[in-house]
Write a structure and sequence with these properties.
2 copies of one chain form a homodimer.
Chain A lengths: L7 H14 L2 H12 L2 E2 H8 L3 H13 L3 E6 L2 E6 L2 H13 L3
Antiparallel strand pairs in A: 1-3, 2-3
Helix pairs in contact in A: 3-4
Chain A binds a DNA duplex through helix 4.
DNA sequence: GAGGTATATTAAAATATCTTTATATTATTA
DNA sequence: TAATAATATAAAGATATTTTAATATACCTC
């Protein structure tokens, strides 16, 4: 991207990922998932986001390959499936001195 | 953010910055500026973006403190003013193996 | 299988963002 | 100062995203 930006395509790809992360609720969800897998209900309570919204964000991120889910009874556990996302979250932590 | 996310505020702040970066044209502009300061016209040609759009993106990023400008005759040179943005761009480069 | 809990889906309404077109400003040069 | 080049601004139109509210599905327990 910086060395060889002959590629506008690459900017499009990166921007697409950033678009998903550029939302306080989704970011908040991912930060929670960074530490451990969690159910929809736990995220709902932990992030203070409505159930449909949590579910919608998770569905979106699952389709994008960022998170994955596994069902256990009538709970569904979500976790971060893409290691690149973890690295990005760590960068944000450093850059923003959180 | 990952250690102590008691702060939803922090997610909002990070998301606000990411929102600006989450656009292929703006990302493309910043990648060009990463190497050296450039005029609006150079960015227009180099990124293949219309003049008003380049100018609008730059104005937005200037107001957000990401870039700064200096006039020289009737050219205006833009450069990245926020070191954090450089670090983020470097992270993207690493993560996405550009 | 009825009732309850957890999660997912849908669709409409509200907002925000992007793009385009036209025009304005600033500075230079002749 | 008229003409031109470079940049900025504004406003309308087009799209996309977010939010909310209602409803559906899946699974468990009794």
């Amino acid at each position: 991207m910086l060395g060889k930006i002959t590629d506008y395509r690459m900017c499009e790809q990166v921007a697409a990922v950033l678009k998903t992360l550029a939302h306080a609720q989704r970011l908040s969800i991912l930060c929670k998932l960074y530490r451990k897998e969690m159910t929809v209900g736990e995220l709902e309570a932990g992030c203070g986001i409505s159930q449909p919204q949590v579910s919608q964000h998770l569905t979106r991120m699952r389709l994008e390959g960022i998170v994955e889910s596994k069902r256990d009874g009538n709970h569904v556990y979500y976790s971060i499936s893409d290691p690149q996302i973890r690295v990005l979250l760590e960068s944000f932590e450093k850059v923003f001195k959180v």
